[in-house]
Design brief:
It contains 15 helices and 13 strands. It has 380 residues and is an alpha/beta fold. The chain is globular, with a radius of gyration of 21 Å. The longest helix has 18 residues.
Length: 380
C-alpha cells in the first residue's frame, strides 16, 4: 500500500495519483488533511469528490482516524505540504520507508531562516528524523542546494516535481489550431509580484514597436492586476493585450492549444511552475525565466523551450524577438516540448518510476537503478 499525504489534492497532483492507484491495483490512497480554500476554487481549481483513492481526513473524526492508520501502516508513505510530525515520528520509529516531498525551502534566501515553519521542520529533522528511513522527493532543481545548506537529507534526495496530464497527439493535431499570421502569446498566473506580470507588458510594448503582428492574452487575477491594466492603457497597448480573468483549467488547456508562445516570468520564489508542464504538453513554445524550479529539468534551451535570465528584461526581449520572427522555430520547439513531456514527464511514466524507486529502496539498500530523470538521485 502506498499512502500520499498533503494539505489538499489539486489538478497538478491528481494525474499521478490516478496512475498510482491503477498500477497498484487499488493499493493507493491520497490523504487530504485540509479542505481546499474557496480562493483556489474561485481561481479555477477543480473539486474532487467521490474518488475511491481520496481520504478527506478533515471531514470527520472517523476519516481522521482512518487517515492516521493508513499513514502509519502503509508499506510506503509520502508527505508534503502538511507535516503531521507525531505521525511521522511514530512511523519512522518502526523503520518503514517514508518520503518527504517538497519544493525549495530558501525561496527568499537567508531570510527564510527566520521562518518558524522552517525552524520547526529542521528541529524535527535533526532531532527525530536524521538517520531514519526517510528520503526526499525534490520538486524542483534548486531544492537540493537548500538541503545541502540546511545539512539535511544528505545522499537521500531524488528528483521529483508536478506532473500534469499529457494527451497523446499526432503532429497535425498538435498544431491544428495554430498557424495564423498573428503570433499568439499567452501568459497565465496570479497577478502577484513574484510572477512579474509587468514583464509581459514590456514584451508587448517592444513587439509593437518592432512592428510584429501579435496578441498577448493574460489569464488570472490578483492584487497587481489593476496596475498592469493601467500600464497597458498608458502605453496604448489595448489593441494587443487582452485580460481574461480566471478560467476553469479545462478551458485554459483549450486556450493553450491555440497559443504559439507561452510566456513565464516568475522569479526564484516559484517553487516549480506546473503551468509550464501544461503549456509544453499542449505544444506551446515556452519562454521561461531560469528561476522556477521546473525550468532546468523541463527546458533544454533552444530545444524544448527558451530560457532567459530571471529579471533580465533585455535578455527576454532579445530572445522573444528572435522567436516571433521564426515561425518554424516556434513549431519545432513546441513539438520537441510535447515529446519531452510525453516521453519523460507523463503521469504514467512518473508513477511507474516512483513504484520502482520505492521497490529499489526497500530491497536494494536505498539505491535505485535510475541515473537520470525523475526519481534519479538529486545530487547534493
Amino acid at each position: 500500500m502506498i499512502v500520499w499525504l498533503s494539505n489538499f489534492i489539486n489538478h497538478h497532483q491528481a494525474p499521478v495519483a490516478r496512475e498510482l492507484f491503477r498500477l497498484t491495483d487499488g493499493q493507493y490512497r491520497f490523504i487530504e488533511m485540509k479542505q481546499m480554500r474557496q480562493s483556489f476554487l474561485s481561481s479555477g481549481y477543480p473539486e474532487f469528490n467521490d474518488i475511491p483513492w481520496l481520504i478527506k481526513a478533515w471531514e470527520n473524526i472517523e476519516s481522521y482516524k482512518k487517515a492516521e492508520r493508513l499513514f502509519l501502516d502503509a508499506d510506503v508513505s509520502v508527505y508534503g505540504g502538511y507535516y503531521p510530525y507525531k505521525w511521522i515520528i511514530q512511523r519512522l520509529d518502526t523503520g518503514k520507508i517514508t518520503f518527504e516531498y517538497g519544493e525549495r525551502w530558501m525561496k527568499r534566501g537567508i531570510w527564510n531562516l527566520l521562518s518558524p515553519r522552517l525552524m520547526k521542520h529542521q528541529w524535527h529533522y535533526h532531532v527525530h528524523f536524521s538517520g531514519k528511513s526517510l528520503y526526499r522527493l525534490n520538486a524542483g532543481a534548486y531544492a537540493a542546494d537548500d538541503m545541502r545548506f540546511l545539512h539535511s537529507f544528505r545522499g537521500k534526495q531524488f528528483k521529483w516535481g508536478y506532473f500534469t496530464d499529457v494527451q497523446e497527439k499526432n503532429l497535425a493535431e498538435l498544431h491544428s489550431r495554430r498557424g495564423s499570421d498573428v503570433i499568439r502569446i499567452m501568459w497565465c498566473a496570479r497577478f502577484i509580484r513574484l510572477k512579474h506580470p509587468e514583464m509581459a507588458v514590456v514584451v508587448a510594448s517592444r513587439l509593437k514597436d518592432a512592428g510584429i503582428r501579435f496578441s498577448l492574452d493574460m489569464y488570472g487575477t490578483g492584487p497587481e492586476e489593476s496596475k498592469i491594466k493601467e500600464r497597458v492603457i498608458h502605453e496604448h497597448l489595448e489593441e494587443y493585450v487582452n485580460f481574461h480573468g480566471n478560467l476553469p483549467n479545462a478551458e485554459l488547456m483549450r486556450k493553450m492549444d491555440e497559443a504559439d508562445i507561452f510566456l513565464f516570468t516568475s522569479d526564484r520564489r516559484e517553487g516549480w511552475g506546473a503551468v509550464i508542464n501544461e503549456a509544453m504538453s499542449r505544444g506551446c513554445a515556452v519562454i521561461s525565466s531560469d528561476a522556477p524550479g521546473c525550468a532546468k529539468w523541463l527546458i533544454s534551451d533552444q530545444n524544448t523551450g527558451i530560457v532567459f535570465k530571471s529579471g533580465n528584461t533585455d535578455d527576454l526581449l532579445s530572445k522573444i524577438l528572435l522567436l516571433v520572427r521564426d515561425k518554424e522555430r516556434i513549431r519545432r520547439i513546441g513539438t520537441d516540448a510535447y515529446r519531452k513531456m510525453l516521453e519523460e514527464f507523463s503521469p504514467q511514466r512518473v508513477a511507474a518510476r516512483f513504484i520502482k524507486l520505492a521497490t529499489d529502496i526497500r530491497y536494494n539498500s536505498g539505491k535505485t537503478v535510475f541515473t537520470e530523470g525523475i526519481c534519479s538521485p538529486d545530487i547534493d
